[in-house]
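Q: Two folds, back to back.
A: First:
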Amino acid sequence: MLRFFRTVRRSLFESGKVKKYLLYALGEIVLVVIGILIALQINNWNENNKVYIKQKGYLALIKDEMVNNLDALLTEKLALMSTIHAQKKILTLMLSDTTDISEKELSVLMGQAFSHDVGFQYENGALTELRSSGGLKDIANDSIRNMLASWEGRMTRVRLQEKSLYDYWVKCNDYLEIHGDFRIVAFGSGESGEGQSGEAAGSQGNKPILESKEFENKLILYFWTGQTLRDIQYVELENSIRTLIKMIGRELGTEEKLHFYDERAVFLNGRLNPGLSYGIITSGGVSNWASVGAQGLCMAYPAHQEWGILYITIGYPTSPPRPSADLSKYKKLVVELKGEKGGEQVQVAIKDKDAPDDGSEAKFPIGLTNDWKTYEIDITNSFKGADMANLYVFASFEFGGAAPQNVCVRKIYFE
């Protein structure tokens, strides 16, 4: 090909056709320039494609990390909810005129309130690598790039609040170490780890701590700081993580289904919806007979009671005026239950924010077997009078009679 061009140039030059020769030479130059531009364009396209592939790889890794972070955050939020719930009960006892609670029940509350060091396990390896490599500037989506650039600021605010909560946790435990009796908390007020009773060893128990103004002040600060972490910092971070996952999913052309965390889920996969909490009560005031474990949310209704209720509410159980949620689009309440032996009896109910606390709400009775069974409860026919547009108690389980019952629920959701 090059020999052909040289032959043409020589022929034009030797024939004396200078004008044609110059035009031909100019054409060759133009062809060379066009070739160079095409080569540069191809090279740029290849480089951009490499950056795009690398960017997609980073975004996919960051999305996976954020899904894990969301799971860890909601787990920690649920644990914090249990801690705050126990703190509130202790504060209620301290602020009341009576401390009518057994050492055993107080030990359970203290274990729940002070044994857990809050701080969720955060993954950020992919984001750290992206930032340190300078690859953040290559993220084409402005919204994602700006969100990732400010992510460490979000985490710093959360970590500062967790640190503040940790400091108050230490102060409360330091006080209990000096003035309390951890042996009773660990082993109960009966037999200790050495086979010796707390009373026999001269222990005064932990109930005198309920009279301490110093401990009350420390506990109030611990309680407020935990509430702020749960209701503000954790909520803001959760919303940011959800937003980032959705944006990255759209950018990658994938959809991340976090369906467990939608509003209709009350209790699934071993977790209570992060926006909900549960309370328990019996006719005799026993308040430590429910827990979340491998079987789900399990209720060990105690003996010698007239009745007992576990109720799941939006936010924390509170006196009127109460918060509520609009779930009027749902027609069924679905629960999956089993009894320990079979034959256990439980009544399921829901309540709106204005319903009185007198047991007058409509209830759906269920006789259980010792195998898991799903019950679909028609809301309109079974819970007449409940305003689903202002729902406060998402589900309650009521027991009756003096005989103990062990019941577990694995799924609670609306459809």
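A: Second:
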Amino acid sequence: MKKRLIAAALALLTALLPLPHVKAAPPMPEVDAPAAILIEQSTGTVLYEKNAHEALPPASVTKVMTLLLCMEALDEGRIGWDDTVTASEAAAAKGGSQVYLEAGEQMSIDEMLKSVAVSSANDCAAALAEHIAGSEEAFVVMMNERAKELGMNDTCFVNCTGLDDSPEAADHKTSCHDIALMSRELLNHEEILRYTTIWMDSVREGKFGLSNTNKLVRFYPGATGLKTGFTSSAGYCLSASAERDGVQFIAVVMHCETSDQRFSSAKALLDYGFANFALADPAPQEPLPPVAVTLGKAAEVRPVLRQSGGILTEKGAAASVERLIDLPETVEAPISAGQQLGTLTVKSGETVLAQLPLVAEEAVERLSWRDAALELLRKICFG
């Protein structure tokens, strides 16, 4: 119940606070893809977008959400890493990319995830969905609920694979923006990189080979994934992620005419990100001074920076960041933990990059009348 309440609160917050956009940017790259977006993973800042909210069929990029729900089920203990998944007749009958599961065949969670992430195996995706939710239909309900929580307002999932060979699949759509949202969330699960960074591997004790359809994993420095997709109606789609020097970008392209176009478009976006942007550490280089407390059971309170993580800025500005601390000399009790005490302003030259709250590390209770009288008496008697 507590997790559901937290999820509901996060859903509302996400709906009210869309992805931030970069305030000023270098000249935009040329991108041939009909729809595209580039975001920075840790901050979610949008650096480039083109028809980013157009709802389009995503093909197998759908499986970003399938993998996300798998990772969340593992983290929450609803399924286990040592589970064995049994393929149903329905899962084994899936067409398209597959590892040719037979009905009743058993495979480990590890090999199932590997087959989905590397070879886009539709049969394994369906088997995992059934293992988590009991049926693919119930899993799709979970997919759409999670999409709403993430603020994916352009999205309607009909299946867990992205296959569009049925009449109802005409409603199966999402956007570059929404794919970026779920990709960002998936990358928060570091274990997924064990699979999305594989170029070639095998399952069934080496008897069945897997080859990644994402060429960037092999040829683009720092590539971390994430998922390709293709059908005749969706065209060539890709959610591509890469990390260098502590900063990670996600480039999503959809409805490309050729495979080369999707990779060249994603590469152009990632190149643009790495060439022009970096993360600056906002944390003060020296410990923050304590703030004196009046009428409190403690004489002082220590301020701390509420925000963790970096601030995205243009690459040349990251090395010249200036931090200005604004704290009061005293603050009156009571003080609650997390209460704002002051502000940290992060600047580069005359440009303000961020204004971040400095908050109380711990609570300080207010002295009672009796405590205050005793303290005053002590000062009178003992100076």
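Q: And?
A: The radius of gyration is 25 Å.
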